[in-house]
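User: Here's a chain of 347 residues. Predict its fold as tokens.
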Amino acid sequence: KSWYIVDLAFAGNFVQYAGDPIGINNRSGRDFGAKRGALGVKITNHWASSIGFRQFSNVNYRYMGSVSAEGSADKYAVDYEGDGGLNTFYWNHAFAIGRRLKAGFALNLINGSVNRWERMADVNISRVIETKVQDYYSGLQMEYGLLYSIPVNKQWLLTVGGKLGQKTSLHPERTLTVLENEVPFIEEAPVTSADFHLPLSYGAGMALRHTSGLSITFDYNTERWKPLQIRGSGWSMVNSQRFSGGVEILKSKIRYGRPQTSSFFQFGGFVNNTNLSVKSNQLAEAGITIGYGGVYGGEIRQLLYNLALEVGQRGTTQNGLIKENYFMITLGIGFRDFLFSKGRKYD
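Assistant: Prediction complete.
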């Protein structure tokens, strides 16, 4: 039998900020958008493939500050704003090598744009200078993975695996626009910019599954940013480490003489030492996740649904930094059907 599955997910993120720079008018933020989309196909009994997209990064900020002109004590109010982000468009392949070993690889196209505005107001001469820098990034990345299953006994199955992501260069195309009182005198001028590099990454994990439907999982992932030596005034990119674990309870029903998944419940948590260090403080993140999903339909055509909630905290209020308390709601829907079948055989 050959089947296909379509999957879409949407997420809403809500954030509360805390720290000395936070005022009464900028304590919260929110955004909503598509998180992922995919089409997967089982081509043969030993080969499956999928194409899709997922959010790689997101930029959404606005803050105010002041600067002084060189050789003058005058201060000018500056409004900084940024938006955009990158997405990953992927083509995955997975292969079953014997009964216990599975291998796969993914070809990822990472692209998108990041927009940054700087608005400086000079109240003495009623002038507003606005600078916009737009970066469009694009690059290819390869990822590789292995899974190996080991029966512990008749009830438990242990699966261990690992993945490796290659170091990747993203080639930017940068343009500069400058306006004075909304009148452009530099408009989308090309500007030379160096490549931005994504680091070598790798991870490992394990899952212990029981025939009753109980699964216990653990994962470790790291990205090696430090060798790239990306830094600025008061900040730098450092090696990140993420530890996560969870439990899944799967319920099945007998349909047409075979067990099929009817619903599942998931609970987990994570701790993440992020890739950003500010004022010698590596920013940390921690949170918990809860999810529920199920299957509706018959043996052939099935509607899949899931709802997940993530609650977490990132950053710190030490040394004048900002802490985020957030929660994110994700809604996923999918559809599964057979492409073709050789039919059942009866004695």
